[in-house]
Design a protein that fits this description.
This protein has about 290 residues and is α/β, with parallel strands linked by helices. The chain has helices at about 1-25, 55-60, 75-85, 95, 100-110, 115-120, 125-130, 140-150, 165-170, 175-185, 190-205, 210-220, 225-245, 250-255, 270-280; strands spanning about 30-35, 40-45, 65-70, 155-160, 255-260, 280-285.
Length: about 290
């Protein structure tokens, strides 16, 4: 009986801890992270779109010595990513998704500057990424602005993922899921554009829980792709959060680091803030 009570108590503590993390990390895009013996660092949740850098984040950045970002799109990395995004010779996107959906892909991707010949060679995941970038893919994102500021200051900049890891995240996703999500996105482009607008609005309100809820509500409206969306969320968000929470720790232990990564990686008990606290760091919301 005593052992059973202990196990029930342990389960309750774990449940309470998860609830606490979920509740704490629902709002806020800038967090001060501390650990005994190190100067404070900051973790800033970005959005991979053009957006202003808030004044509190700019001040924290200016006081930092190093910058960590998800990925640095240097010349080689861009070329390698483009190479990996293309189907092998002799295969085509049209053959995979059919003539009707391919015509939609051409119609929706051409305004983003992609020629038909390139669209025909894209892997389904690459077409999906470009589709969700919108009509202005060359506009500098908030991440790019932060990196440019760091370069101008001659800060040391680290990336938490290499290009091969980025490729692996998409390339090894089941083809069935890639095709289902691409076809669905092509058929529901207007709704996805609306989702992007609401996501940006929630981000500007620093509402992490709302960003996550918008994705959940979209999946609930479209149960035919909910399982595929959940799989990609696990691969793109949760699995990568584990990797990045581990890799940022070296600089966090040194202190005075500024970490910039997608805001959804901060949210809830599976986000990097909760994972860092499991490893002895402490987080406090700044903004």
């Amino acid at each position: 009986m005593r052992r059973r009570i202990f196990l029930l108590g342990a389960a309750a503590l774990v449940s309470a801890s998860a609830w606490s993390a979920a509740a704490r990390f629902e709002r806020g895009v800038l967090w001060r992270v501390t650990r005994r013996g190190a100067a404070p660092s900051h973790i800033f949740g970005t959005i991979h779109e053009p957006a202003p850098l808030p004044a509190p984040a700019a001040a924290a950045f200016d006081a930092s010595k190093t910058l960590l970002v998800e990925f640095l799109p240097e010349a080689y990395s861009r070329e390698r990513f483009l190479e990996a995004s293309l189907l092998p010779e002799g295969r085509s996107l049209e053959a995979l998704i059919g003539a009707e959906d391919f015509a939609r892909a051409v119609e929706q991707l051409t305004p983003a500057g992609l020629p038909r010949e390139l669209i025909a060679r894209l892997k389904p995941w690459a077409a999906l990424i470009n589709l969700r970038r919108g009509a202005a893919p060359d506009a500098p994102t908030l991440d790019a602005e932060i990196t440019a500021r760091a370069r101008a200051r001659r800060m040391t900049v680290f990336q938490m993922e290499g290009v091969e890891e980025q490729i692996f995240t998409f390339d090894e996703a089941p083809l069935e899921s890639q095709l289902a999500l691409l076809r669905h996105s092509l058929a529901h482009r207007a709704e996805l554009d609306e989702l992007a607008r609401h996501t940006l609005a929630a981000y500007l309100e620093r509402d992490l829980a709302r960003i996550a809820r918008l994705r959940e509500e979209f999946a609930a409206r479209h149960p035919e792709v909910a399982a595929h969306q959940a799989l990609m969320t696990r691969r793109i968000v949760y699995d990568r959060s584990v990797v990045m929470a581990f890799r940022m720790q070296r600089e966090l232990r040194r202190g005075e680091a500024f970490v910039a990564l997608g805001a959804l990686h901060l949210h809830g008990e599976k986000g990097v803030l909760a994972l860092l606290e499991q490893d002895g760091f402490r987080s406090a919301r700044v903004y």
